[in-house]
Design goal:
single chain; about 180 residues; Rossmann fold; binds zinc ion; 6 helices; alpha/beta; two-stranded antiparallel sheet; 2 domains; five-stranded parallel beta sheet; Nucleoside 2-deoxyribosyltransferase
Length: about 180
């Protein structure tokens, strides 16, 4: 199961949550290390004086190649995920991502511990978890809900290369012949 962890650079528990979820064999997208050798996006890569930008400069720099590449990397991972976990405290970016995920129908969990700021719109989330044990049990529930091919592990969101369809509750069209051979 693919999990998109939405959080902030300033969040100190994000690395622990990513490690915890990877320990459970979840495929986790970490915006701080989206790919090996890539340490995530920083405005300073575009301009060391980014904090002084005027609105027009910001608008222009938002279309900078570095910004676009990073945006598409995050968006692809978000589109691809089965579950989104919003790890608080975090800012605008992570909240937009979680909002997008909820709108796209992806189960979304808000994880919060200390210094909470009550927010009405958090009612949009499927679950609110306040400890890691609870987070893991909700993720396990969601994992069981995903329809998965018993042979290749493909899902509705992640079909076989070239596409496949369900021929049984837990068997996809690409795997019918494989499974018949297994039965011999
Ligand atoms: Zn299959
Ligand atoms: Zn398949």
């Amino acid at each position: 199961m693919k999990i998109y962890v939405a959080s902030s650079w300033r969040n100190t528990i994000q690395p622990k949550i990513v490690a915890l979820l990877r320990d459970q064999d979840y495929e986790v997208y970490d915006f701080k290390n989206p790919k090996p050798g890539n340490t995530g996006f920083h405005w300073s890569e575009i301009d060391p004086n980014w904090k002084q930008w005027t609105p027009d400069q910001f608008k222009m720099n938002l279309k900078h190649e570095i910004a676009l590449n990073s945006f598409y990397s995050d968006m692809r991972a978000l589109e691809d995920c089965n579950v989104c976990v919003l790890v608080l405290p975090c800012g605008r970016s992570a909240h937009l991502e979680a909002g997008w995920a909820i709108g796209a129908g992806k189960p979304t969990i808000i994880f919060l511990q200390d210094n909470i700021e009550p927010e009405l719109m958090y009612l949009m989330a499927m679950f609110i978890c306040t400890d890691t044990q609870d987070l893991l049990s909700k993720l396990a529930e969601l994992k069981n809900d995903i329809r998965r091919c018993r042979v290749c592990g493909c899902t509705d969101d992640n079909a076989c290369l070239g596409g496949c369809y369900w021929v049984e509750e837990d068997l996809c069209s690409k795997c019918v012949s494989v499974s018949e051979r297994d039965d011999d």
